[in-house]
């Protein structure tokens, strides 16, 4: 086992969610191969959100509602609007959210985040925008929803290291994967050089970019 893996195992030993619903969701995600944020990445984001105390959050990419529920559990005075385009995952998210104790603070929208801008706009502006939907569309998501970010707000982009493949020098055979990685790398470079934001990419989970709006 590599040193980094040993460190991850050590850190994970301190993370023990006791909420039965959360444990059930994690098990469902494993069994059904639903991509949810891993525990280390989630704990990092939750602690960051506790520090800044956002009142309103927009999430692009609900999946089964795991991140939405975890964020609302961690920040009692916040609310979240979350968007999911996959019908099966939307229904599962609805089920889990309705079973949670934070359902009153979660607004779930069904649709492609590339097309739900007007619906989202009805909910007002946001202190945090969490981008975790189609990886190849991050730049478009940013452009569509960034105008809804409050001054001094934060945009969090997940999976920006994509299993470390953004660093590989080797040729990737799969054409779709190759194109996706190229888009992610282009997004990262554009984001790091954005004049309106200060951005840091953290090598946690699958890579988390935190971009704070200047001014």
Which helices and strands occur, and which strands form pairs?
Blueprint: H1 3-12, H2 20-32, H3 39-52, E1 56-60, H4 66-74, E2 79-84, H5 87-99, E3 106-110, H6 117-121, E4 126-131, H7 138-145, E5 149-158, H8 175-192, E6 197-202, E7 208-213
Parallel strand pairs: 1-2, 1-4, 2-3, 4-5
Antiparallel strand pairs: 5-7, 6-7
Helix pairs in contact: 3-4
Total individual domains: 1
The CATH topology is given as Rossmann fold
- Could you tell me the mean pLDDT? 93
How many extended strands? 7
Gross CATH architecture: 3-Layer(aba) Sandwich
Oligomer: single chain
Task: Give an overview in words.
- It is a single chain.
- The protein is α/β, with parallel strands linked by helices.
- Helix 3 packs across helix 4.
- The protein has eight helices and seven strands.
- The longest helix has 18 residues, at 175-192.
- Helix content is 42%, strand content 20%.
- The model has no long low-confidence stretch (mean pLDDT 93).
- It has one domain: Rossmann fold (3-Layer(aba) Sandwich), CATH 3.40.50.150.
């Amino acid at each position: 086992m590599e040193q980094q893996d040993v460190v991850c195992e050590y850190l994970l030993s301190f993370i023990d969610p006791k909420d039965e619903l959360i444990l059930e969701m994690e098990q469902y995600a494993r069994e059904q191969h639903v991509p949810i944020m891993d525990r280390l990445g989630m704990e990092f984001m939750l602690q960051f959100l506790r520090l800044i105390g956002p009142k309103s959050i927009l999430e692009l990419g609900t999946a089964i509602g795991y991140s939405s529920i975890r964020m609302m559990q961690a920040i009692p005075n916040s609310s979240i609007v979350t968007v999911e385009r996959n019908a099966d995952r939307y229904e599962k998210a609805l089920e889990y959210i309705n079973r949670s104790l934070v359902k009153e603070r979660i607004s779930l929208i069904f649709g492609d985040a590339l097309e739900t801008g007007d619906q989202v706009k009805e909910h007002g502006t946001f202190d945090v925008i969490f981008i975790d939907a189609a990886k190849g569309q991050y730049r478009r998501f940013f452009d569509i929803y960034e105008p809804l970010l409050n001054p001094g707000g934060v945009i969090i982009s997940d999976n920006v290291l994509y299993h470390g493949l953004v660093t590989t020098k080797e040729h990737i055979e799969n054409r779709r994967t190759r194109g996706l990685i190229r888009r992610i790398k282009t997004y990262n470079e554009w984001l790091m050089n954005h004049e309106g934001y200060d951005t840091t990419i953290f090598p946690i989970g699958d890579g988390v970019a935190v971009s704070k709006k200047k001014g």
